[in-house]
Write a structure and sequence with these properties.
mainly alpha, 15 helices, Farnesyl Diphosphate Synthase
Length: 332
């Protein structure tokens, strides 16, 4: 009798979610899967998709408005640059887990370091290697891309290591939103638009909108860590004011960030075809609702609001790219 497909897949690659126990499989050792979990692959989807979307949007925008030539191998550069940004995020995730072991023992004991699969020192060393590789790769693409990748590294390293901005109330949300929002989008835009970066406000405004949204949205990640953060000296809005009060504080950041699009269009800082991005304010209300409910996922590492927040960020970048690519045939 044949085994169910899900069991066959589990036998080959091991646990399918972070919260399942580790076991040796046909394809991966326990340690290999532990390293994989250090990178937190679900969270890597956002930087990969967002960065590639912004790169393609930049390519088309600079072709349409600045007459830049589209090279035949543009897709290779998009892939290499997107992978570089993903590696920086993987390094950040690995470093964060290496420095959050005590908190993870309380709130996320299923992670590879608390389980003893990976050593703290090994995770930290791996993070430094990935950071170095990403920086060396970034500077070969162009100077501005390398600069923004370096700035992302500074913010993510100081988030986890001294002065450890993660422990400071509200600053921690701003500190993580800037590299993932503004610097990530500017880095992506600079791949094809480095020489016009300061000639158009578009990437700066889109990056700013993403940053403001993430300042509010990133509060969702602290809900399941509230007790652990408090015991380890990290102050968050969640463990200071409570989840429901934090939800009400976060809502304006998420909601009004997208409602600013018509304002920027009106003052001619954004093109009219980007007006549909305003609709993401509706999704922000849904995130607020899920955050208020505090419903934790059985498979993902956090509550449903956290997952939808990432989906909203990815969809925002994808929509921006689609609108930019097809703006000549849109009716607005």
């Amino acid at each position: 009798m044949n085994k169910p497909p899900s069991k066959d897949l589990g036998a080959k690659i091991g646990k399918l979610t972070m919260k399942q126990p580790y076991s040796r499989t046909k394809l991966f050792s326990v340690q290999t899967r532990g390293v994989f979990d250090l990178f937190r692959p679900f969270t890597l989807a956002a930087p990969i998709i967002v960065s590639m979307s912004i790169m393609v949007a930049s390519l088309i925008y600079n072709y349409q408005y600045h007459g830049k030539v589209i090279s035949e191998n543009w897709w290779i550069l998009v892939g290499q640059s997107g992978l570089t940004i993903a590696i920086v995020n993987a390094a950040s995730n690995s470093l964060n887990q290496a420095t959050d072991v005590e908190a993870d023992k309380i709130s996320k004991p299923y992670r590879p370091i608390p389980r003893g699969i990976i050593k703290r020192e090994g995770a930290q060393s791996l993070a430094y290697i990935l950071y170095l590789f990403a920086l060396l790769r970034a500077v070969t693409i162009n100077a501005w891309f390398g600069t923004f990748i370096f700035l992302i590294m500074i913010f993510t390293v100081t988030y986890s290591l001294p002065p450890r901005m993660k422990k400071y109330l509200f600053i921690n949300q701003v500190w993580i939103a800037i590299p993932r929002g503004l610097f990530g989008i500017l880095a992506s835009w600079s791949v094809f638009g480095a020489d016009t970066l300061f000639e158009t406000p578009t990437p700066w405004i889109i990056g700013g909108i993403a940053t403001v949204f993430l300042i509010g949205g990133m509060a969702t990640k602290d809900i399941t860590d509230a007790e652990a953060d408090k015991k380890t000296g990290t102050r968050t809005m969640i463990n200071t004011f409570g989840t429901r009060s934090t939800a009400f504080v976060s809502l304006p950041f998420m909601f009004f960030s997208f409602l600013s699009v018509p304002i920027f269009i009106n003052i001619e800082y954004l093109e009219p075809y980007l007006f549909p991005l305003t609709s993401f304010s509706i999704l922000s209300v849904f995130i607020f609702y899920l955050m208020y409910r505090e419903t934790e996922s059985k498979t993902l590492e956090n509550i449903h609001a956290w997952a939808i927040m990432y989906v909203a960020y990815i969809s925002f970048a994808l929509s921006f790219a689609i609108l930019t690519i097809f703006n000549k045939i849109l009716p607005f």
